[in-house]
Description:
alpha/beta
Amino acid sequence: SAASDVYKRQVxxxxxxxxxxxxxATHLAGQATSxxxxxxxxxxxxxxxxxxxYLTSLLQKQNITVQAVAAGNVQALRTRLDSxxxxxxxxxxxxxxxxxxxxxxxxxxxSRIAKRMFIxxxxxxxxxxxxxxxxxxNAYSLSRFVPxxxxxxxxxxxxxxxxxxxxxxxxxxxxxxxYFSAITIAEAIKxxxxxxxRDYLIERVExxx
Length: 209
């Protein structure tokens, strides 16, 4: 699956949050109606504002109406949320931390204006244990990585390799990335023969991916 490919290739494929934005844009575009409306809420980190702007550009290409507001801009957010009826937005996308989202829900009751709420796994890795029931009722986790319930199957080969080589895995993601990188580089070098150069190595790796 695309998710597992991204998980295995994280070292090489470094789009980061853009991967989440692209996946969400594709998902929403497949369900888009003529009046679909999306609200994004981002925090004061530059990367949060940047990814919000990037998703806005992707959705606008699909003729989806998008609004974005900073979580700290209380007046603008209050005005936006008070201007429409309940479930005013088809989707609310959160680029903020657990603490910020809980504060927003307590102050603005975000759950009442969102048919669906998409929460970035990069900011909130475990929504189920940290967010209010009102938020979780219509919440979806947006992640670049393999879901937890499928992770064991994806890591089976890595775990076997570590066991044979008597390596104790303390960080599964690092171990998976290291394993994939090692076998990819080794396979690429086998085909380089006498043409050992950095540029050709990169070309071989790209061809394999």
